[in-house]
């Protein structure tokens, strides 16, 4: 069955009234949390993970996908109106977007962000439909050593890219791997790192880890740094674009899409690099009025990076769905959600659960349209959300996180673990350790351990079995290059500074 026919069946799943409602809830929640500084899509999906015990898988992932796309757009609203990026990928949008807003062009900045997000998201989702089956066909040939090498590449790439230093990224990864070891060893039956607590024999639930490190840790950190009153929000009317704005925006939208999708699909690629590249390219290509406006509020500096940002979100889903490889914080939480349903993303997911996968992909087209309809007329409403008192907001998140975790098993031990992990997440942010590598280490660590043991068992204990496969050898070499790249850059930069 070809991809187009499978996509049509996915639309049949996504267009049911219940799933349309979940898609609407997802994009609305995503936009809402994206607008609020310090609360991103990863935290929101983490907070909502407990619903995986009551909601059917297809509906849950349609809602999570809506949150992901909505959060990507909502971050641009904060960047433009407050000069405060809600996500790291929205930092570039703030450079020109806030200056446009202060020149009285907030409506145009929000409109080019909304329409650019729609254009990029739609094109990138189309590319996802084409690319995913190709990667699945390739992944079918993977053996245990290939999956282990893939996990090592994910570890090194995420630790290097999502951190200011490789050492801090690897330290965070180590924390996640240790958390993943807690519980009974699946092969020997030995209890590991349980400290004599019976509730830890089954390991620490991934929901508790995700909510504790992401949601609780982020709230505690943001609240600890809250030293100012109500933010000053730039006034905004209904978002619209004039003829000149259209002519200046459509090319950056397409160029941003072309940059964002492949970077999102790369392990550790993320959205930060393509948004930076898009801004640089648009600045170099600027002529006439656009060149004069750069640094003062050029619309191209908003259109290109926002398109790259949203295209990378669709690119992230390619390795997640086809290989089970998360390349961003939100993708790591989505992987945790799959595991809550007893599902493992990869080639078998496409064979055994096509309605779930293609329903989720189809919902991205629907969610993009909903976002456009929601965001163009409701821009003033999202601006008012920024006036919500922060103490009430963060207290509500802490309470909701505790209720969600306690509802899992009604265990006070899990509540204690939640708050311990929340304090750990706060400490990691305080000392500059990224949280995403820890969550990815906790989720992928057990899988990497199982695949390593299988490979060594097949090779009768011979370590060289890990590099006999050409795929595994290439992946391990790439992982080594990713790990060595920051060191090489420093060594090259040192003589040039001396000169």
Explain what you see.
The protein is mostly helical. It has one domain. Helices cover 75% and strands 1% of the residues. It contains 21 helices and 2 strands. A two-stranded antiparallel ribbon has the order 1-2. The longest helix has 49 residues. It is globular, with a radius of gyration of 22 Å. The mean pLDDT is 80. This is DUF112 domain-containing protein. InterPro entries: DUF112_TM. Keywords: Membrane, Transmembrane, Transmembrane helix.
Distance separating the two termini: 61 Å
Q: Largest beta sheet, briefly? A: 2 strands, antiparallel
Instruction: State the share of residues found in helices, binned by percent.
Output: over 70%
Global morphology: globular
Overall average pLDDT: 80
Which radius of gyration do the C-alpha atoms yield?
22 Å
Q: What are the secondary-structure elements, in order, as H or E? A: HHHHHHHEEHHHHHHHHHHHHHH
Determine the structural class based on helices, strands and strand pairing. mainly alpha
Describe the protein's topology:
Layout: H1 3-14, H2 17-35, H3 41-47, H4 57-82, H5 91-139, H6 144-161, H7 166-181, E1 183-184, E2 191-192, H8 206-224, H9 243-265, H10 272-285, H11 289-293, H12 300-323, H13 329-340, H14 347-352, H15 354-375, H16 379-385, H17 390-409, H18 412-430, H19 436-458, H20 465-468, H21 470-498
Helix pairs in contact: 1-15, 2-4, 2-15, 3-4, 3-8, 3-13, 4-5, 4-12, 4-13, 4-15, 5-9, 5-12, 5-15, 6-7, 6-19, 6-21, 7-19, 8-17, 8-18, 8-19, 9-10, 9-12, 10-12, 13-19, 17-18
